[in-house]
Design brief:
The complex is a heterodimer of chains A (about 500) and B (about 1000).
Chain A (H helix, E strand, L loop, with lengths): L10 H11 L3 H9 L3 H6 L31 E8 L12 H5 L7 H4 L21 E4 L4 E4 L3 H5 L4 E8 L5 H10 L9 H9 L9 E7 L24 E2 L18 H22 L2 H24 L6 H7 L8 H13 L4 E7 L7 H25 L6 E6 L3 E7 L6 E5 L3 E7 L6 E3 L1 E2 L6 E3 L2 E2 H11 L8 E4 L2 E4 L15
Parallel strand pairs in A: 1-7, 1-8, 4-12, 4-15, 5-6, 5-7
Antiparallel strand pairs in A: 2-3, 4-11, 8-11, 9-10, 13-14, 16-17
Helix pairs in contact in A: 9-10, 12-13
Chain B lengths: L1 H19 L11 H12 L1 H4 L15 H5 L1 E2 L2 E2 L10 H6 L17 H12 L30 H13 L9 H13 L5 H9 L5 H11 L2 H13 L17 H12 L4 H10 L8 H6 L16 H21 L18 H9 L8 H4 L15 E3 L3 H26 L5 H10 L4 E7 L8 E3 L4 E2 L12 E15 L6 E2 L5 E8 L7 E7 L8 E5 L16 E2 L9 E7 L10 E2 L1 E21 L3 H7 L8 H14 L1 H22 L3 E3 L45 H9 L8 H17 L20 H13 L4 H10 L1 H4 L6 H6 L12 E2 L2 H12 L54 H5 L18 H9 L1 H15 L6 H13 L5 H20 L1 H8 L8 H15 L6 E2 L1
Parallel strand pairs in B: 11-12
Antiparallel strand pairs in B: 1-2, 3-16, 4-15, 5-7, 6-7, 7-15, 8-14, 9-13, 9-15, 10-11, 10-15, 17-18
The chains are: A alpha/beta (about 500), B alpha+beta (about 1000).
Chain lengths: ~500, ~1000
């Protein structure tokens, strides 16, 4: 009997193959339309190609069928970059108010990582906000967020988040990829890899950004990188100002018709070459050019919100072309409608080391209304039930003050902060977890970042233990190697 | 379309079934390395492998001895007897199987079958292939002995014959020269180069092309593209503000190293430890920039110990991946789960780098690092032949001037009486002495940013230039321990400095500060607020003398303070000045001191009769006479000017990060579970992974010991052949599309074993024996029959060997990102070739850097020739790599990349269609086509296609372009404004329609799959 042709393949390649085997032609070809490309797929052992494949239909992902009954089809992640204070938003701490200005008890801070307050005197800063109860659920929300308070019954507030990274850049990496090691895919990439996209002519993972508040921290494109997953699963940044996507505009003097003719000439010549070489990669190339051409039309249309009814623009507080968080929230809804799987918004400006009052006014002023509008709008369109909305920063802020003067701020804090979730599969009106009396340590129902990831994947119908990719000898998962749990108490 | 779908589905399914059949269980034919190890690794080793911490039931299946040891009457594996083997019983236990159900990692039927057969056949283990030193294999026999040109071909063909497969024929000559030129230079051949090759019918034509290409400087640029991926070279720090750092001379070192064929062992030693070589030359120090290629951060609030741990892990990952093909990084928190690396090995390997001085930026005490480039000390100036010649010429003139000075000094005594008379007259004059103006020529140490600049909008107060200092916090620059200039305090001196406070960005406070020797800096005067904390007390004192409000902004003003107000008494000597501000932007110009023209003590001596003066008094007067003699002053000024010339040559040298050894290396502890807050772990010294040997050095081992161990042959207790195996496998993949071992980045237990282990060993041994000669090795590879095969496979090969693991054909694939760019620029005629220099910035979409901050980033695209340089020189911004390079899969270079992914995305299509660089290239290409002196449109089009893809187009292909050209012409004739825009000319230019029409054609040709594909 013949010996094996090539060396024993890793069983995980086999797993991927098994998943691929379950894929029908439409999906397989659709993977080409995702840009997976013959070459990328050919790295999966044993996959070979027909010689005249034409893409049809979107790529449906490797988790097909879903591991679990999905509760959400897509995610809108509202990242409040810089790290909003939980103590002025969702975590009411009357005890902290009582000892405003006094020394922070050392028992809280002993041996804990500290960022900019290293070596400084640690004093308590009482909450700079008032809290009241909202909705039938009576959730406690601060006066900075009146609009979000109006959807209190739609959101589940988690007050016991913890993360592991205390500086912005690595903390974003940890929140997005569950690790600070280079090359790890962002959650949007994992989800798109797992579930594919429902859109014919849009990427599965889209990123939108806005700025307002205190001197904004940088944000690296690695935050939406696919890492070691094929680059087609990378987030694509859409700009609500200027060219919406890089190179989306035709060159000068090239009309739509001319461009169409150029693209079809490229296609015809590539097709002739394919007939000489039988190279399946050429078919994939042809498909990508056609998709690119469709994107040149669909994306500018998508990004132009001026055709939204005035009352919708008003509800969000959006002005077409202003690049604001409000416009991005509205765009998030439009992207969701068009089948984009993961929509990640970053609002930069929440790094309130000083001027807490001043900058909370700015940041909440630009984000509170559109956040609530997005939830209401999705709800009124029947989309909230299968759209998971997540709100939060890369970490929270210290109960201790930073800076002097009449309007001090707070430093980075990772041992207890708040986030909220809404929509697809989330039980609205839920409060979950708690920090200690001073809002320092999450002490009750602690939710680690990897628990958040596990919960998000769960709602999307993915068992987080089963979405993995072999990389440098390890079956890498979004939730990493430590145990992660689905936070079932906040699920509907 | 639907009619064909069933067939295509079948195709896919067939492929999957074919894979399932690839590992048939056959009697007497189970091989541990090929068949068993990966099953155990995947399913068993996580809990029963080398990581003792994670081990369950105290059972390890990692070695034969462990797996077969007696465990109280039972054994996990009983060789030859599956049924008595406890492990086998558990694997097949339906109620409670191993691996446990909750692991989601079940053994399938095929794996179980293999395991059973393996146990039945004696459960033999073999050591992991990658840790067994290479053995020279015998050259296998082949039936077609005409085919092989090199023992390499014997190995390839023998395997193919054993599998019953036929290699494809050789590629045609056009494809061959195009492949060679792309592979060896990263650029396509010109039509003339193709013609020359086609016409060269003498024997050795192919070899001559190879030798020409290997001798080209482009070879180093092409090889650097790959090496820079491995070592994660980039122009920016990577973390947080992603500021530019100074490192491009390292990139040029790499290019030159490949071009001068530096042996790989030397290349290795210079990068890891060039600074530890005896009397290292400049190149060897620049090479140590390797140790500085990590990602760094000075984000506010970084914790020193945390980042020390992060940096160390970065270095361990890279050195192990680049040179060892090993994932030692996995052992940061625990023993490796699949390979014999322990967590302790991780830290001992990291300890080699504990002497790399790179901590200054983490302390960032002056807040002055948000600059472009940022500061990442230590940095060194890099001289060129030209700059060295200039310095030599200056030195020669300085020696001459020094000789003249000595002659003049010797003549002073003759003129002393007249001089004493004139000096009495000047007794009451006040004069200024400059400390610093347009250059820093005080000698001694300087800290902070001493760059002398001039902005168009702000003329200097004095001389030509000034220093600009901006910050949001405390920032200063200073000079101390000065040797060329000191200020003796005689009494009555007033210090001054000219400043210009930006009206748009005024500082909160400014400070002048003086050093009276050693660390005595307690002499300060401040203007403005109290934000500067140095020396601040509630009350005024000499160490913090408040001078009231800031001076007016928007004009040059003179800050002044008397010596006694800042506590400087007669007799003290000032040998340092600091210029400090809090926030804002301040321009600092000339600074110095004013005082009596003739010091009091000199006048006192002069009042004495000459014969009554003590020898000290005579010296004092002589010294003063020399100081004030115009002759002496002129000569000293000449010397000083030459000194300044030399310094300005040196200051203008490009700087680069290099490795400077710390006197006392940082302490390295094993961090339990990688936790940097836990200081309970053992302190470790540098050592190589224990299972690979021991360096046996006298005293602590160094980076040099590590580097030499990596490239020393096994018989001298090194791992040279294993290092060579990692490299030759990657070079093979670079030229044949896939490695002999497909896991280019992981030779460990979780990687795939080699498909051609004997050939891999042969190449590693030969490479070491060739003294690590890279060009010879590559020459040998590309001269093989295997390299010359066509890349068009018959369908039988596609089915039986879809990944081309056995090399019965050549690989085809898209060019790497840099080469996509280079090819388009070359075909269009825009490419500007120049080796080395600062990274270049081709145009990129506006606002692409909008998310960067500290400082806010503006991208100033290069105009002129620089924008047309090769991709290897493009500014590598780790967080926001140029979007065209990204679209074609260039990595961000945060970590070692041994194999780039190859995607085929709409982003790539959009970049190639619409990137302004491609648009400009299309116009330039159109101009070349129009100037090509072809008779008619068809021949022009044919010429153009050949320029891009090397072959002549078919009539059918020309027809497509003829149609396009005709429609373009019609459109642009009717739309002259559009024509001007498309042609990129000013409105109303003659013939813009023709240029526009051909630009469109050129753009299509540049967009062809074939143009950017290596076949």
């Amino acid at each position: 009997m013949r010996r094996s042709l090539v060396s024993n393949q890793s069983p995980h390649h086999q797993l991927i193959l098994d998943q691929l085997a379950a894929v029908n032609r439409r999906q397989f070809l659709g993977s080409l339309s995702m840009g997976l490309g013959a070459a990328a797929l050919s790295q999966l052992p044993g996959v070979s190609f027909g010689q005249d494949m034409i893409p049809a239909g979107p790529y449906r992902g490797v988790v097909d069928p879903r591991h679990l009954i999905p509760r959400a089809k897509r995610v809108i992640f509202l990242c409040m970059a810089g790290g909003p204070s939980q103590l002025e938003t969702f975590d009411e701490k009357p005890k902290l108010a009582e000892i405003d200005g006094q020394a922070m008890p050392g028992s809280f801070t002993q041996g804990m990582p500290i960022a900019q307050l290293q070596g400084k005197e640690l004093r308590c800063l009482g909450p700079r906000a008032t809290f009241s109860r909202h909705g039938q659920s009576g959730q406690s929300i601060s006066n900075y967020l009146p609009h979000i308070a109006s959807v209190a019954d739609d959101i589940a507030i988690v007050r016991s988040m913890v993360t592991e990274q205390i500086n912005h850049d690595p903390a974003h990496s940890f929140m997005n990829a569950g690790s600070i090691l280079p090359g790890r895919p962002s959650m949007g990439s994992w989800v798109t890899y797992g579930l594919g996209t429902e859109s014919q002519d849009l990427p599965g993972f889209v990123v939108l950004t806005s700025v307002a508040g205190r001197n904004p921290q940088p944000i690296a494109s690695r935050q939406w990188s696919s890492g070691f997953l094929p680059s087609t699963f990378s987030g694509v940044e859409f700009n609500s100002k200027g060219d919406p996507v890089h190179y989306i505009g035709n060159p000068p003097g090239v009309s739509r018709d001319r461009q169409e003719h150029f693209v079809s000439a490229v296609r015809d010549l590539n097709t002739l070459r394919a007939s000489q070489t039988h190279d399946p990669e050429i078919d994939s190339r042809i498909a990508q050019y056609e998709l690119a051409f469709r994107m040149q039309m669909s994306i500018p249309e998508l990004m132009d919100i001026s055709n939204e009814p005035p009352e919708v623009l008003e509800m969000y507080g959006a002005t077409p072309g202003d690049g604001s968080f409000a416009s991005n929230c509205l765009l998030a809804r439009r992207l969701a409608e068009r089948g984009v799987r993961f929509i990640h918004l970053y609002h930069r400006g929440w790094d309130h080391h000083d001027g807490l009052r001043k900058y909370m006014d700015v940041c909440c002023g630009v984000s509170d209304q559109p956040t609530a509008a997005l939830i209401k709008d999705l709800k009124s369109r029947g989309m909230l039930e299968d759209t998971l909305v997540v709100w939060g920063g890369e970490f929270g802020r210290t109960p201790m003050s930073q800076g002097s003067g009449t309007d001090p701020g707070r430093d980075h804090h990772i041992k207890g902060f708040s986030m909220f979730l809404a929509g697809g599969g989330i039980r609205g009106g839920t409060s979950y977890g708690a920090t200690d009396d001073l809002g320092y340590h999450a002490v009750e129902d602690v939710v680690h970042v990897r628990d958040l990831h596990a919960t998000m994947l769960h709602l999307l119908g993915i068992d987080h233990e089963r979405l993995s990719m072999p990389f440098q000898g390890l079956d890498v998962k979004l939730t990493g190697v430590e145990p992660a749990r689905v936070v079932t108490d906040i699920l509907a | 379309m639907m009619a064909g779908s069933g067939m295509r589905t079948c195709h896919l399914v067939t492929a999957i079934i074919a894979l399932a059949l690839m590992n048939p269980v056959t009697s007497g034919d189970v091989d541990f390395t090929r068949d068993i190890r990966s099953i155990l690794s995947q399913h068993c080793f996580p809990c029963h492998g080398p990581d003792e911490q994670a081990r369950q039931a105290k059972l390890s299946l990692f070695t034969f001895d462990e797996a077969t040891s007696d465990r109280g009457g039972m054994r996990a594996i009983v060789p030859g007897d599956p049924d008595s083997s406890e492990a086998w019983r558990r694997m097949t236990d339906h109620e409670d199987p191993m691996p446990p159900v909750e692991e989601n990692n079940p053994l399938d039927a095929r794996e179980l079958e293999l395991l059973e057969q393996w146990i039945r056949e004696g459960a033999s283990y073999s050591p992991h292939w990658a840790y067994v030193p290479p053995q020279r294999p015998i050259i296998p026999e082949v039936s077609d002995d005409q085919w092989p040109l090199d023992p390499i071909d014997h190995h390839v063909l023998a395997r193919l014959e054993a599998e019953g497969l036929q290699p494809v024929p050789e590629a045609d000559r056009i494809t061959l020269i195009r492949r060679l030129t792309h592979d060896l230079t990263g650029l396509p051949p010109t039509a003339k180069e193709i013609d020359d090759f086609l016409q060269d019918t003498r024997p050795g034509a192919y070899e001559r092309v190879v030798d020409r290409l290997l001798a080209s400087d482009r070879f180093g640029e092409r090889m650097a593209m790959y090496w820079l991926d491995l070592v994660r070279y980039a122009d920016t720090v990577g973390y947080h503000g992603d500021q530019t750092h100074r490192i491009w001379p390292y990139r040029d070192y790499v290019i030159n190293a490949f071009n001068r064929n530096l042996p790989f062992d030397q290349f290795t030693i210079e990068q890891l430890a060039g600074d530890l070589l005896p009397a290292p030359n400049q190149d060897q120090l620049v090479a140590t920039g390797y140790n500085r290629l990590i990602q760094t951060s000075h984000e506010g609030g970084v914790q020193l110990k945390e980042y020390r741990a992060i940096y160390m892990a970065d270095r361990v990952r890279n050195v192990s991946e680049t040179w060892m093909g090993a994932t030692v990084g996995c052992a940061q928190c625990h023993d490796h789960k699949y390979d014999p690396f322990t967590a302790r090995d991780f830290y001992t390997l990291g300890a080699f780098f504990a002497d790399v001085d790179d901590e200054e930026h983490l302390r960032n005490q002056y807040g002055g690092l948000n600059t472009l480039p940022t500061r990442r000390l230590p940095e060194m100036g890099v001289s060129s032949a030209a700059s060295r010649a200039r310095v030599a010429a200056i030195e020669a003139r300085r020696e001459q001037a020094q000789a003249e000075l000595e002659r003049v000094m010797a003549g002073l005594e003759d003129h002393q009486p007249e001089w004493e008379e004139t000096i009495q007259v000047q007794a009451d004059e006040i004069q200024e002495t400059t400390w610093v103006d347009d250059v820093l020529a005080t000698g001694g140490d300087a800290q902070g940013d001493w760059t002398f600049v001039r902005e168009p909008a702000l003329p200097a107060h004095s001389g030509e230039t000034y220093r600009k200092q901006s910050s949001t916090g405390l920032i200063q620059h200073y000079t101390v321990g000065t040797t060329n200039r000191t200020i003796p305090i005689h009494g009555g001196e007033r210090f001054f400095a000219w400043v210009y406070l930006s009206p748009d960005d005024p500082p909160g406070a400014v400070m002048l500060q003086f050093n009276a020797g050693g660390t005595d800096w307690l002499h300060r005067a401040t203007w403005g607020g109290d934000q500067i904390e140095y020396g601040r007390r509630d009350e005024d004192w000499a160490g913090y003398r408040r001078q009231g409000d800031l001076p007016p902004t928007g004009q040059w003003v003179r800050l002044e303070i008397s010596a006694d107000e800042v506590g400087l008494a007669p007799g003290q000597i000032v040998s340092g000045m600091a210029f400090t501000q809090f926030g804002g932007t301040v321009y600092w110009d000339r600074a110095g001191v004013e005082g009596h023209a003739v010091p009091r003590e000199v006048l006192d001596v002069l009042s004495l009769p000459r014969e009554d003066r003590t020898p000290e008094q005579v010296d004092l007067v002589r010294h003063y006479q020399a100081e004030t003699s115009p002759d002496v002053r002129d000569r000293r000024a000449a010397i000083s000017t030459l000194e300044q010339d030399r310094q300005s040559v040196e200051a203008a040298l490009p700087r680069t990060m290099y490795t400077k050894r710390l006197e006392t290396p940082r302490e390295v502890r094993v961090l339990p579970r990688g936790n940097w807050l836990d200081e309970s772990g053992e302190i470790v010294e540098p050592a190589v992974p224990v299972f690979l040997g021991d360096l046996a050095t006298d005293g602590p081992a160094t980076r040099l010991d590590l580097a030499r161990w990596l490239v020393r042959p096994g018989e001298e207790d090194g791992v040279g052949e294993m290092t060579a195996r990692v490299l030759v496998n990657r070079l093979w993949a670079l030229f044949l599309g896939e490695g002999l071992c497909p896991s280019l980045d992981d030779f460990g237990g979780q990687g795939q074993p080699p498909n051609h282990p004997e050939l891999l060993d042969l190449l590693a041994i030969d490479f070491v024996e060739s003294d690590w000669n890279i060009k010879d090795f590559i020459r040998r590879l590309v001269l093989t029959r295997t390299y010359r095969l066509s890349s068009i496979p018959p369908s039988v090969l596609v089915e039986q060997d879809p990944t081309n693991a056995l090399f019965a054909r050549q690989a085809r694939g898209r060019l790497p990102a840099e080469s996509v760019r280079d090819t388009i620029l070359a075909v269009s005629g825009l490419l500007v070739e120049k080796i080395g220099g600062p990274s270049v910035k081709p145009p990129q979409p506006e606002g692409y850097y909008q998310h960067l901050n500290f400082p806010v980033r503006r991208y100033d695209a290069d105009g002129g020739a620089e924008q047309w340089r090769r991709g290897v020189y493009v500014h590598w911004q780790r967080q926001y790599l140029h979007p065209m390079l990204r679209a074609f899969d260039a990595p961000a270079r945060e970590d070692c990349t041994a194999r780039r992914s190859v995607s085929n995305t709409p982003q790539a299509a959009l970049a190639l269609l619409n990137d302004p660089v491609v648009v400009q290239a299309s116009r330039a290409f159109a101009d070349r086509i129009l100037a090509s002196e072809q008779a008619d449109d068809r021949s022009r089009l044919s010429w153009a296609v050949r320029e891009a893809v090397g072959r002549w187009p078919t009539e059918e292909e020309i027809d497509v372009l003829v149609d396009l050209l005709a429609e373009n012409r019609a459109y642009y004739l009717a739309n002259p404004t559009e024509a001007d825009a498309a042609a990129g000319v000013s409105e109303g230019t003659l013939d813009s329609g023709a240029r526009a029409a051909w630009t469109g054609v050129a753009r299509v040709i540049l967009n062809l799959h074939e143009t950017i594909t290596r076949e």
